[in-house]
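Researcher: Let's continue the batch. This sequence belongs to HTH-type transcriptional regulator CysL, and it's 308 residues. Same format as the previous ones, please.
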Amino acid sequence: MSYLQALTVFLTVVEEGSFSAAAKKLDLTQPTISFHIDNLEKNFSCPFFIRTSKGVSLTLYGEKLYESTRTINNLVQKTQNQIKSLIAGTAGHIIIGASTIPSNYILPPIAAKFLISNPAIRISVRSGDSQTILSAFENGEFPLAIVGKKPQEKLAGLPLWTDELILVAHPDFARGFCRNSLDLLKLPFVMRKESSGTRSVAMEALASHDIRPEQLKVVMEIDSNEALKAAVLHKVGVGFISKWAVHDELVTGKLVDLAIPEQKIVRQFYALCHQPLQPVCTESFWNFLLSQASEDTLGTLGTLCPTS
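Model: Same format as before. Here are the structure tokens for HTH-type transcriptional regulator CysL:
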């Protein structure tokens, strides 16, 4: 016997007031209604109804079962509605892994636009350096990722946005800096840790000037852009960082861009996903993400972030 079916029959008998009315409501025969009620009473070893010529009334046991059955029925209906929403992609939980710049500058405006038309969806962003996010993505910890380091070919990342890295310094450090590659070797550096996409791209750029990592005077290694920016502001050293991360400080003159001659450091951000995307809302967000990237005709963060 299906308890769910039997409880539905029980609930209908109570609300309709008789076996015959319940049979009509459920489009079942009266013997079928009696069969389900008899089986319920046998399974619980107690009577639920007092049968009279005018219909039925509940026993003390029946009142308790009716109270519980209403709760169960409401929960089933709520669950059915939630599942329908998940199937339609209008509700659910989306988990995204993102390196620092995407989590701070790419995802917030895109998520804000997406949630306007999808208010029942919840988005969680797990942030870290590019290598940490790539490793977690490969281990299946989340279905979507955006990183600033080119993933291995097997992960098939889509290049969607670009960002400019600059070498920033406190104005005091800029004095006397002639902006040539040899001057770089004289400066104290604050660097992101080795698994960072920022550091990887910066080292590639320096290699084009025949500067090897071991030649730099690295005085501090740090986990995040915000921590690197704070260290530079406190004159610990100079550091490579996304231009977007220091937009306000450049405008106010708290930091300066030590432009390296004939060197513009541009890096690519890659979006990755595991197929098939589940739940449906994750696929909806992925498609929305791609549409937002295609609208950004410059291929930069210019349409997503403030400009000077």
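Researcher: Any comment?
Model: The chain has a mean pLDDT of 87.
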